[in-house]
């Protein structure tokens, strides 16, 4: 920029010699020239004042002449003023009329318009009149003649040469007056008084409602505050988006005229027009008279016959000489009509397609690989029983396992090798076995028919054996006393044959469950409807208590809370939760099952699962509600047992269809997080016998292993 | 025509230049000249080829099966596939090393026991020991030749171990049992007896609260260590003098006859750290003990301080453990799945096993390294099979299927035999295994 400026200035410097007058356009200069020329041409030496008038620019040099003129005019005025004012005016009128008429009368008026007069300089005519006739230039007077004429004529100074019409005009007195007034910057007409007195047109004094003559208030001259406030309001509202402007209406853009209408589906509830499905437009092949190259040869037709039915072309082009010879021609009209009928009458329904991936509806579960370890394969079988194994129980350390069978034997197995260590003949089918949960008290509770046997397994060292023997010793006299005093619900007897104790019940005992401290155990007699069907026994004092609650329904199983003095009784339809210390019912859990068969409590104590005879398993979160948190359909037939693992987040169910189902059941300490249940594995391997499959399953207390007891006389160990 | 013939010949069989080398001694040596053999030949073909070569040298040579190694790996497929799989060029002369097939040539008659044979020990070349579920230990001179019966345990034996295998006249033996005790015995192996001699323990080691699962002897024989279900490892003195004040002598009367006194010993150190049953211990060096446990870990203990040095976690219950192999430092262990895992503790970050052998179909009950070979080990499983392994191939060298039930224990004996005891109450001896 600076450089440019510099150059510019340089140019300016250079251009200084050129006169600036040259800059205007030539036409203007022409005009000026012409005017100058006119001035020259009309140069009546005397009439400088005239030229002054024409130019309209008062010159100092000519001021003297003007004054003289003025003086003259004033003289005239004086003369006029001397006369009558009305005369004056009439005179003026006359003059005006004269001038008008004269103007009208002047026949040849130039009609060339506003063009440079220079064009007609060399012409013999000055222009054209209204009829198109040339107006001849008047012959120019000789300068001397004109001078003489001017000198003679006293009114010469009033004459003006009109170059346009090529005539001389004599200004009237009034016109001269007008001009003079204008030159003095006064109103052109002398009768106009700019300073006339104001006239009060209204009477103010007595008027009832005076027109206000109060001055204009100031507020009319200053910007309104209220308006400013309103504007601010609007601006804020616009900024906040409270005021929305209508969008400029979009004009319909180009649209696909022959496009598929079905794409632009309106979302309307009302019946909407559903266009007929578009048919594929026929191509050359479908023509009645296709070009030769479209017609298959006989060989090709033969080859179609060899093709697979689905690959064969549906339409084979054929040639016909005319439309009439097409076989379909006969029926063409009818077909057309029916097609129209179809299109018209066929009820069409818009298919609402739900584009939801069915996979996405599944809950997101962690993969099974992440949830290892869990039992997968069977490695060890425990063979020896001669009839269905009904119940198993694993010792607290996990070294031994006990099983009871329908063949009337109870066996103790070594877990590691599958060797049977001991065997008791109890005579009747065993319903349930339960190992004392304390690791140093190797006592086995076995329910056989109406009895519960407490067996010494003879494991453990001498001291432990001594304690066990003390526990299992009962004075027959006190026992009889006990039974004499109260209603003899259960009698504690000595069993010499098996070196243990025998608790004689009145009905068949189906389930035995130990308390975690190994002193109490509960027995369930489902057949007993009249009496209390659930009893709690104390081993150290050889005492039996009834459950101090009324049960509604038939008790199936019972279990102790793993850490608190809470007792669960599972009846056919519901689970009742009792507090044993306060002896009151805490909760009633509604299973919604037809017939519950088993119950297991999570080692945390707040969750429990109930298995049912219809193959369903209910998971209860007791903090959540008394309704099941999840119902899992495990098997089509009865579930015989459900069980939680003590340390791993696993639970399992076993059913009569010879499968055990292992689940991952994670309970979080965070109360906001619901338990995570993931099905893991079906464990198969048992065979069905008499319609019964796996009768019992138990987890190894320390390993993620599952023992299953089958009706096929086998016990299997599934390892991870 | 010529071209065609050559092409077709190429397509049918390509030949490879090979040279047979061996570390075997004189009768098994073949000339080291390179020969061309067809590429689709497999182990059997190679073996018959070598046998033919040997017979051409020595007409009296008895045919012998051979195994073949190329670049330290056993050939278990056709030569062509092997070269393709390993990316070895078939252009140069291939060196094939051959060894005699590691497989038992002879199966002795099984020696029947009264109950399950739960433990065997073949660390002495003169005899081997067995432990049985009837509570008796037995000393055998050979298959079917029982010399001594170790009597005294009240429950099944779980482990037996010879304390000084090369002792001159009397040999000391340790046994562990489910009756929560260990017993030490002295036996005179030189005596010639017609019927088995009954021996009583000279020392009873009490202190475990639960059944003892395994016993291992220090290399010098002064101490034994035992692993038990009570999650502890106890260390015991083996000396038999009566100096300690805590030793209690007992007189036993059986049938009115006073027998010799028995000492009772107590553990002088207990290694605590395992959280579940310790199933196996080995004591390969004087200062360190390795133990395997049901809590899925293998631990190395320092004997002097009783501290746990290193842990290896496996994820499965472990039943057996042995140290051996290259530099006696590889750890082989098996447990509640059909996989034998071998760790190399010298490698940094040893959590992953360096070898895994998975041909069994059930729990592994025993695994033992060969005491002279770096590559060979045996394994016994509940599927009734004993397998011989070489680290240089993923397949078992041979499978001994002499048992009809679970094999509970197995060991090498005299470095060319395998002894194994199982739940079918049989003791099987498979001999003439040409390791090396």
From TrEMBL, chain A:
Q: Does the keyword ATP-binding apply?
A: no
Claim: ATP-binding is one of the keywords in the record: no
| WD repeat start and end residues | 382-423
Principal localization reads nucleus
Compartments, record wording: Nucleus, Nucleolus; Nucleus, Nucleoplasm
Q: Could you tell me which Pfam families the record lists for this protein?
A: BOP1NT, WD40
The UniProt keyword set, sorted, is:
Nucleus, Repeat, Ribosome biogenesis, rRNA processing, WD repeat
GO CC annotations, alphabetized: nucleoplasm; PeBoW complex; preribosome, large subunit precursor
Q: List each copy of the BOP1 N-terminal domain by range.
A: 120-375
Biased amino acid composition, Acidic residues: 67-81
Matching entries from SUPFAM superfamilies are given as: WD40 repeat-like
Q: Name one GO biological process term.
A: maturation of 5.8S rRNA from tricistronic rRNA transcript (SSU-rRNA, 5.8S rRNA, LSU-rRNA)
GO MF term set = ribonucleoprotein complex binding
Q: Where is this region: Disordered?
A: 1-119
Entries under InterPro entries matching the protein: BOP1/Erb1, BOP1_N_dom, WD40/YVTN_repeat-like_dom_sf, WD40_repeat_CS, WD40_repeat_dom_sf, WD40_rpt
Q: Which domain of life is it from?
A: Eukaryota
Q: Which family does the similarity line name?
A: Belongs to the WD repeat BOP1/ERB1 family.
Its annotated function is as follows:
Required for maturation of ribosomal RNAs and formation of the large ribosomal subunit.
Query: What HAMAP family has UniProt attached to this entry?
Result: BOP1
Q: What is this protein called?
A: Ribosome biogenesis protein BOP1 homolog
Q: Which organism is it from?
A: Psophocarpus tetragonolobus
**Which lineage ranks, top first, belong to the organism behind this chain?**
Eukaryota, Viridiplantae, Streptophyta, Embryophyta, Tracheophyta
TrEMBL record, chain B:
User: GO terms for CC?
Assistant: nucleolus; nucleoplasm; preribosome, large subunit precursor
Q: Where are the WD repeats?
A: 150-195, 205-237, 271-311, 357-399
Q: What does this protein do?
A: Required for maturation of ribosomal RNAs and formation of the large ribosomal subunit.
HAMAP family membership: WDR12 (MF_03029)
Listed InterPro entries: NLE, WD40/YVTN_repeat-like_dom_sf, WD40_PAC1, WD40_repeat_CS, WD40_repeat_dom_sf, WD40_rpt, WDR12/Ytm1
* Organism, as annotated: Psophocarpus tetragonolobus
Subcellular location(s) of the protein = Nucleus, Nucleolus; Nucleus, Nucleoplasm
The UniProt entry, under Pfam families, shows: NLE, WD40
Tell me which UniProt keywords the record has, alphabetically: Nucleus, Repeat, Ribosome biogenesis, rRNA processing, WD repeat
Question: By its UniProt entry, which PANTHER family does this protein fall under?
Answer: RIBOSOME BIOGENESIS PROTEIN WDR12, WD40 REPEAT PROTEIN 12, 37
NLE domain span: 16-83
Name this polypeptide is given = Ribosome biogenesis protein WDR12 homolog
């Amino acid at each position: 920029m600076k450089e440019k400026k510099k150059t510019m200035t340089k140019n300016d410097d250079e251009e200084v010699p050129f006169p600036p007058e040259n800059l205007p356009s030539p036409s203007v200069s022409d005009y000026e020239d012409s005017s100058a020329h006119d001035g020259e041409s009309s140069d009546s030496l005397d009439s400088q004042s005239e030229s002054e008038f024409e130019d309209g620019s008062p010159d100092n040099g000519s001021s003297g002449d003007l004054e003289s003129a003025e003086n003259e005019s004033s003289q005239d005025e004086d003369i006029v003023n001397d006369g009558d004012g009305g005369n004056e005016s009439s005179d003026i009128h006359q003059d005006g009329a004269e001038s008008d008429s004269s103007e009208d009368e002047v026949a040849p008026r130039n009609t060339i318009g506003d063009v440079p007069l220079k064009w007609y300089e060399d012409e013999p005519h000055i222009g054209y009149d209204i009829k198109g006739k040339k107006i001849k230039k008047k012959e120019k007077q000789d300068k001397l003649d004109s001078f003489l004429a001017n000198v003679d004529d006293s009114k010469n100074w009033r004459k003006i040469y009109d170059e346009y019409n090529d005539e001389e005009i004599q200004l009237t007195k009034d016109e001269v007056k007008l001009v003079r007034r204008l030159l003095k910057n006064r109103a052109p007409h002398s009768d106009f008084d700019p300073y006339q007195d104001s006239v009060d047109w209204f009477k103010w004094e007595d008027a009832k409602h005076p027109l206000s003559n109060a001055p204009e208030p100031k507020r009319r001259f200053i910007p309104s505050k209220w308006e400013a406030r309103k504007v601010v309001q609007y601006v804020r509202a616009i900024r906040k988006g409270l005021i929305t402007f209508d969008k400029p209406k979009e004009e319909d853009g180009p649209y696909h005229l022959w496009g598929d209408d079905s794409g632009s589906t309106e979302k309307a509830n009302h019946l909407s027009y559903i266009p007929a499905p578009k048919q594929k437009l026929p191509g050359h092949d479908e023509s009645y008279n296709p070009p030769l190259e479209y017609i298959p040869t006989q060989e090709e037709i033969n080859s179609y016959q060899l093709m697979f039915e689905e690959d064969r072309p549906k339409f084979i082009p054929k040639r016909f000489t005319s439309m009439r010879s097409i076989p379909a021609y006969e029926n063409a009209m009818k077909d057309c009509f029916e097609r129209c009928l179809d299109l018209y009458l066929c009820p069409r329904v818009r298919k609402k397609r739900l584009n939801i991936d069915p996979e996405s509806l599944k809950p997101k579960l962690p993969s099974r690989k992440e949830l290892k370890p869990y039992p997968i394969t069977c490695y060890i079988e425990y063979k020896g029983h001669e009839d269905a194994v009904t119940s198993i129980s694993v010792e607290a350390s996990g070294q031994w396992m006990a099983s009871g069978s329908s063949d009337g034997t109870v066996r103790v197995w070594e877990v590691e090798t599958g060797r049977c260590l001991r065997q008791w003949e109890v005579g009747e089918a065993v319903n349930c076995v339960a190992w004392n949960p304390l690791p140093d008290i190797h006592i086995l509770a076995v329910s056989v028919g109406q009895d519960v046997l407490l067996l010494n397994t003879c494991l453990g060292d001498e001291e432990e054996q001594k304690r066990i023997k003390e526990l299992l010793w009962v004075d027959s006299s006190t026992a009889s006393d006990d039974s004499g005093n109260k209603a003899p619900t259960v009698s504690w007897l000595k069993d010499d044959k098996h070196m243990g104790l025998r608790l004689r019940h009145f009905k068949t005992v189906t389930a035995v469950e130990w308390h975690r401290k190994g002193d109490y155990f509960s027995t369930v007699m489902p057949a007993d409807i009249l009496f209390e069907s659930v009893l709690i026994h104390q081993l150290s004092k050889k005492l039996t208590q009834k459950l101090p609650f009324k049960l509604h329904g038939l008790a199936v199983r019972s279990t102790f809370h793993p850490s608190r003095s809470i007792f669960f009784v599972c009846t056919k339809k519901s689970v009742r939760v009792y507090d044993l210390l306060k002896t009151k019912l805490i909760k009633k859990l509604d299973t919604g099952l037809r017939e519950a068969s088993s119950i297991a409590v999570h080692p945390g104590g707040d969750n429990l699962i109930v298995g049912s005879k219809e193959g369903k398993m209910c998971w209860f979160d007791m903090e959540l509600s008394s309704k099941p948190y999840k119902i899992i359909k495990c098997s089509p037939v009865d579930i015989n047992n459900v069980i939680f693992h003590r340390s791993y987040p696993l639970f399992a169910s076993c059913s009569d269809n010879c499968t055990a189902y292992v689940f991952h059941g994670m309970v979080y300490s965070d109360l906001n997080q619901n338990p995570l249940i993931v099905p893991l594995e079906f464990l198969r391997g048992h065979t069905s016998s008499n319609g019964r499959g796996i009768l019992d399953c138990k987890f190894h207390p320390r390993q993620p292993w599952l023992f299953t007891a089958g009706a096929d006389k086998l016990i299997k160990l599934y390892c991870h | 025509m010529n071209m065609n013939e050559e092409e077709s010949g190429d397509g049918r069989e390509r030949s490879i230049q090979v040279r047979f080398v061996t570390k075997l001694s004189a009768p098994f040596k073949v000339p080291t000249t390179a020969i061309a053999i067809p590429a689709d030949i497999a182990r059997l073909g190679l073996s018959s080829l070598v046998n033919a070569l040997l017979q051409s040298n020595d007409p009296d040579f008895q045919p012998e099966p051979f195994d073949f190694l190329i670049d330290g790996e056993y050939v278990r497929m056709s030569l062509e596939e092997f070269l393709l799989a390993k990316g070895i060029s078939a252009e140069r002369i291939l060196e094939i090393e051959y060894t005699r097939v590691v497989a038992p040539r002879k199966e002795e008659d099984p020696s029947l026991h009264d109950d399950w044979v739960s433990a065997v020990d073949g660390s002495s070349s003169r005899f081997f020991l067995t432990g049985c579920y009837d509570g008796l230990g037995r000393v055998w001179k050979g298959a079917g030749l029982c010399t001594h019966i170790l009597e005294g345990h009240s429950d099944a034996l779980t482990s037996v171990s010879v304390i000084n295998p090369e002792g001159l006249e009397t040999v000391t033996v340790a046994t562990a049992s489910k009756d929560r005790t260990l017993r030490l015995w002295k036996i005179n192996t030189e005596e010639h007896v017609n019927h088995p001699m009954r021996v009583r323990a000279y020392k009873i080691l009490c202190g475990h609260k639960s059944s003892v699962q395994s016993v291992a002897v220090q290399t010098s024989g002064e101490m034994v260590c035992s692993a038990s279900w009570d999650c502890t490892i106890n260390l015991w003195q083996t000396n038999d003098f009566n100096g300690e004040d805590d030793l209690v002598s007992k007189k036993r009367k059986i049938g009115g006859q006073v027998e010799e006194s028995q000492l009772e010993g107590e553990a002088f150190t207990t290694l605590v750290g395992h959280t579940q049953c310790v199933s196996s211990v080995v004591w390969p060096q004087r200062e360190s003990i390795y133990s395997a446990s049901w809590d899925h870990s293998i631990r190395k203990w320092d004997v002097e301080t009783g501290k746990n040095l290193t842990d290896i976690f496996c994820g499965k219950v472990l039943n057996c453990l042995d140290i051996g192999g290259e530099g006696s430092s590889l750890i082989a262990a098996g447990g509640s799945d059909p996989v034998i895992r071998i760790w190399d503790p010298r490698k940094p970050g040893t959590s992953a096993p360096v070898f895994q052998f998975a041909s069994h179909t059930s729990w592994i009950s025993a695994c033992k390294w060969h005491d002279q070979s770096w590559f060979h080990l045996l394994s016994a499983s509940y599927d009734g099979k004993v397998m011989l392994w070489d680290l240089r191939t993923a397949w078992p060298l041979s499978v001994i299927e002499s048992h009809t039930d679970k094999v509970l224990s197995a060991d090498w004996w005299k470095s060319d035999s395998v002894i194994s005891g199982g739940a079918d109450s049989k003791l099987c001896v498979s001999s003439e295994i040409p390791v090396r």
